[in-house]
Amino acid sequence: MTPHHTTTVDADLRDIALAVADESRRYLSTVTEVAAGSAPDAALPLLLLAVSDILAAGARLGATTDVVPLERFEPDLGPDPDVDPLRANLANVFEGIDEYAEVIDPLLGVDIERSSISGDLVGIAGALAQGLRHYESGHVLEALWWWQFSYLSDWGERASSVLRTLQAILAHLRLDVEDDVAAEAEYDALQP
């Protein structure tokens, strides 16, 4: 769907909006597929890629001059989608490893709080979906403002934390092996 109000948006912002909209759709699709359990063996790599890609889009938003919508109010798009089933399904996918420790603000101190992979993935999804709703309703500047604001205030940080956590889980799964298995692999690697 092509946004309606694009005549008031310059070409650079239109390009950024299109890129973020496309990336948001991919992220939402991937998170939904993982939550449905359609590819359990690929869940971690798929999420690692989806979160990395949306962070790249977010970095572009962060590097862009502040976007200011034409109106000083957010158009009413109706009720927010119910994300509780998505959160519950993702919590099931990550059962036993869903919670992790997160530094609240690395610039202000080393205070730690508990976070969850499922909660962070869904929080990101909710922010992206809200911007996408604006974009698909033809409110390109409003979508950009929302994505940029929510990236800087919330989902960028959540995505960074959950990306590190997903990478750590993947590293543990691939690198944590029994000592005898590691010694045998090392021995085999050293043989001519």
Write structural notes for this entry.
There is one protein chain. Helix 1 packs across helix 3 (84-93) and helix 4 (117-136) packs antiparallel against helix 5. The chain is built from 6 helices and 2 strands. The protein is mainly alpha-helical and 192 residues long. The protein has a single domain (6-190), classed as Four Helix Bundle (Hemerythrin (Met), subunit A), CATH 1.20.120.1550. Strand 1 (99-103) and strand 2 form a beta hairpin. The chain is elongated and about 65 Å long. The protein is 65% helix and 5% strand.
Task: Name some characteristics of this structure.
192 residues; mainly alpha; Four Helix Bundle (Hemerythrin (Met), subunit A); 6 helices; elongated
Compact overview of the structure:
The protein is mostly helical and 192 residues long. It has six helices and two strands, in the order αααββααα.
Tell me the layout of helices and strands:
Blueprint lengths: L10 H26 L6 H21 L20 H10 L5 E5 L8 E5 H20 L3 H36 L3 H12 L2
Antiparallel strand pairs: 1-2
Helix pairs in contact: 1-2, 1-3, 1-4, 1-5, 2-5, 3-4, 4-5
Q: Would you list the SSEs in sequence order as H and E?
A: HHHEEHHH
State the strand order across the main sheet: 1-2
The secondary-structure class comes to mainly alpha
Strand segment count: 2
Q: How is the biggest beta sheet arranged?
A: 2 strands, antiparallel
Task: Write down the CATH topology.
Answer: Four Helix Bundle (Hemerythrin (Met), subunit A)
Weakly predicted, low-confidence segments: 1-7
Task: Estimate the strand proportion.
Answer: 5-15%
Average residue-wise pLDDT: 87
**Whole-number count of domains:** 1
Q: Over the alpha carbons, how many angstroms does the gyration radius reach?
A: 20 Å
Helix count equals 6
Instruction: Specify the CATH homologous superfamily.
Output: Protein of unknown function DUF5063
Question: Can you tell me the CATH architecture?
Answer: Up-down Bundle
User: How far apart are the termini?
Assistant: 60 Å
Overall geometry comes to: elongated
The CATH class assignment is: Mainly Alpha
Helix content: 55-70%
